[in-house]
Specification:
Layout (H helix, E strand, L loop, with lengths): L33 H5 L26 E4 L5 H19 L4 H4 L4 H17 L1 E2 L5 E8 L4 E9 L6 E2 L13 E11 L2 E13 L6
Parallel strand pairs: 1-3
Antiparallel strand pairs: 2-5, 3-4, 4-6, 6-7
Length: about 200
């Protein structure tokens, strides 16, 4: 069974909470008392730095290479979720909730159908997708993006034999993606093949 390119289809969005502290101690009188001048004070120990924990990977086992896009652009973050979430879903044969969150209802149903078909066939994709954002255009609630994917990193293979399901070309394939902003977040509404991208072979 042949699956369409779309299944080689956010960020999941991670919320980092920052903790702050306030020093409520009163300010001491700058004029030293006799007892203070006679007694040497021991400096207070410097507080140890708080331990930090890296946010968990929303797609365990997926090591994505993603370039392009402007830092801080929420649309680029959604495309990251699309790429990594697709790889995870196609390997685990279940649509990750983070991926569903960045897809329109119709697109989500289509992706779920493809994932189920892949499960029946025993197909998976590599765990290291490689993608590049060539362009993101649009203002207001609607945008379009051109996303390039390195074909070998998103090609279907048989999970038992490791053999390719169909012939693989060493090239960058492009997707034309439509997005809209809904309730303060971006979702993908349409994904269509758009030829090839002229990029160097990834390292």
């Amino acid at each position: 069974m042949h699956l369409r390119w779309i299944m080689t289809a956010a960020a999941a969005v991670l919320l980092l909470s920052a903790c702050s502290s306030e020093d409520g101690s009163a300010t001491a009188d700058p004029t030293p008392t006799p007892s203070e001048t006679a007694t040497s004070s021991t400096p207070s120990p410097t507080p140890a730095a708080a331990a930090t924990t890296a946010p968990p990977n929303p797609f365990p086992g997926i090591e994505m290479t993603f370039t392009g896009g402007r830092a801080g652009d929420a649309r680029a973050e959604v495309l990251k979720t699309f790429v990594a979430g697709s790889a995870y879903s196609q390997r685990e044969h279940v649509v990750a909730p983070q991926l569903r969150a960045v897809l329109s209802r119709d697109l989500s149903r289509f992706v779920a159908g493809g994932v189920n078909d892949a499960k029946k066939e025993g197909w998976v994709v590599p765990a290291r997708p490689v993608a590049h954002v060539a362009a993101i255009k649009g203002k207001g609630r609607f945008s379009r993006a051109r996303l390039c994917r390195w074909s070998p990193s998103v090609s279907w293979t048989d999970s038992k034999t490791g053999k390719l399901v169909e012939r693989r070309e060493n090239q960058w394939n492009a997707l034309a993606i439509s997005m809209r902003s809904s309730n303060g977040r971006w979702v993908l509404t349409e994904v269509q093949p758009a030829g090839q991208c002229t990029l160097k072979v990834p390292r």
